[in-house]
Specification:
6-stranded mixed beta sheet; alpha/beta; 17 helices; Rossmann fold; Protein-Tyrosine Phosphatase, Chain A
Length: about 450
């Protein structure tokens, strides 16, 4: 049978895209090189969607007119090379689902902070009574929500991988938190390739669209000068800046949009720390552009619960605080975590290295680390960099051993911080699995 649409990858994104395609009367076929999760297999059967698992039937795939690709599949694998050489159009779930909704799109990307910011924006809008969905790189599949819900707004967290497959899709409000080196293994170790993927967040922007960004990020500001987007620009910064829409001064955060000024005491923000101030500022700008009242915004910024696996306090055991920052899969995320620490730290690092340069955290490690624990299958790169910088270094290859070692290494008043700088796939299913194992082990101490 000839299919109009092939979906590569049977995770949350792929299954959601298949459901939307089926709902729109498109002849769709889903193919996964691995075995599907039981819940995804059952969903496809229940919806009557044709699929295969444990390998790809190339003949069917190469006869497709369009392919929706899971963001995790790189273009370098042999099947993708054949697809590209045949000139078959390859798009992301975001591009596909965007065709079938008229909802207003609020899209967030960045090397760090995008999950927290997307979650906070969603919390603000939902608390204010807006009919809003949350998707993209977080929560339920965007495509499935388009098929089965009828939202007026979508808050979408978008990774660089998802943005690679965006062409006609447009973010009405685009938020770019920052750009620091990440996933360079995916981008031929060429930083500009990664930057180009991130900047697709403002692809198709025109007058009346909004672009919110961190004005102190030299990479982002250089790209803005180069690309000269037609959108309305709103920046945020730490200190008062005549050009910035959001800044802090004294003990307050200020947001200036549409001729109005919103202010809020910093100590009342649910999210504390400099990086979280940026997340609150970006979210606040979005809220004011959507005419959320000052009272509603103030309440939502003060009662937000935060994101699991991001500087998540787990427990205090014998005077030692344990913090789960498993979502820190790059060096810059770990830098933010270390910068926010006020005590000596036992730092758990390691996993699948994505082309990391640890120089960024070297000074903070020298200042704050009592000891380092390397949790990974291959710690040679970490050893080569950190040997001699910190006297107490241990290597482990299970989370239980990591937590037990940290328990012995830490002194009263210290913090044990899981902030790995690396992807989790060598020893864990994903960063959530890594963080959950950490929390379980800590609670058993």
């Amino acid at each position: 049978m000839n299919y109009e649409l092939i979906i590569l990858g049977g995770g949350e994104s792929g299954v959601g895209s298949a459901i939307l395609a089926k709902a729109k009367g498109i002849r769709v076929f889903l193919s996964d090189s691995g075995m599907l999760k039981g819940e995804h297999r059952k969903t496809l059967v229940d919806y009557g969607i044709d699929f295969e698992e444990g390998g790809h039937t190339e003949e069917s795939i190469l006869s497709a007119s369009e392919i929706v690709k899971s963001p995790g599949i790189p273009d370098t694998i042999p099947l993708m090379q054949k697809i590209i050489s045949k000139g078959i159009r390859v798009i992301s779930e975001i591009e596909f689902a965007g065709r079938y909704t008229h909802a207003k799109m609020i899209c967030i990307t960045g090397s760090n902070g995008k999950t927290t910011t997307a979650s906070l924006i969603y919390h603000i809008l939902k608390s204010a009574g807006l009919n809003v969905g949350l998707g993209g790189n977080i929560g339920k599949s965007f495509a499935r929500q388009v098929a089965e819900e009828n939202f007026d707004y979508f808050v979408l967290e978008l990774s660089s991988f998802q943005l690679e497959g965006v062409y006609d899709f447009k973010a009405d409000i685009a938020v770019l938190m920052n750009i620091t080196p990440d996933h360079l293994d995916r981008y031929d170790h060429n930083m500009q390739n990664y930057v180009d993927a991130k900047m697709r967040i403002i692809r198709n922007h025109k007058m009346g669209d909004s672009f919110i960004y961190w004005i102190d990020d030299p990479v982002v500001t250089k790209e803005i000068e180069k690309l000269k987007p037609a959108s309305d620009l709103y920046s945020f910064t730490e200190k008062n800046n005549q050009r910035a829409a959001a800044y802090s001064e004294g003990n307050k955060m200020y947001i200036q949009t549409k001729g109005t000024v919103f202010d809020m005491e910093l100590e009342l923000l649910a999210l504390q720390g400099m990086h979280n101030l940026y997340n609150s500022m970006a979210s606040g700008i979005v809220a004011k552009l959507l005419d959320i009242s000052d009272d509603n915004l103030r309440l939502a910024l003060s009662d937000f619960k935060g994101v699991p696996h991001r500087l998540e306090k787990v427990a205090s055991v014998r005077g030692v605080q344990y913090i789960n920052d498993s979502k820190a899969t790059n060096v810059n995320s770990c830098w933010y975590a270390l910068q926010s620490m006020r005590t000596k730290v036992v730092l758990i690092l390691g996993g699948t290295d994505k082309g990391n340069d640890y120089t960024e955290i070297e000074e903070l490690v020298r200042q704050k680390a009592r000891g380092l624990i390397f949790l990974g299958k291959d710690n040679r790169k970490l050893r080569a960099f950190f040997d001699g910088i910190v006297p107490d270094i241990e290597e482990v290859n299970s989370m239980k051993d990591a937590v037990d070692t940290a328990y012995r290494m830490a002194e009263k008043g210290d913090t044990v911080l899981l902030s790995p700088c690396c992807a989790s796939f060598d020893l864990f299913q994903n960063y959530e699995d890594r963080g959950n194992q950490f929390k379980d082990c800590v609670r058993r101490l």
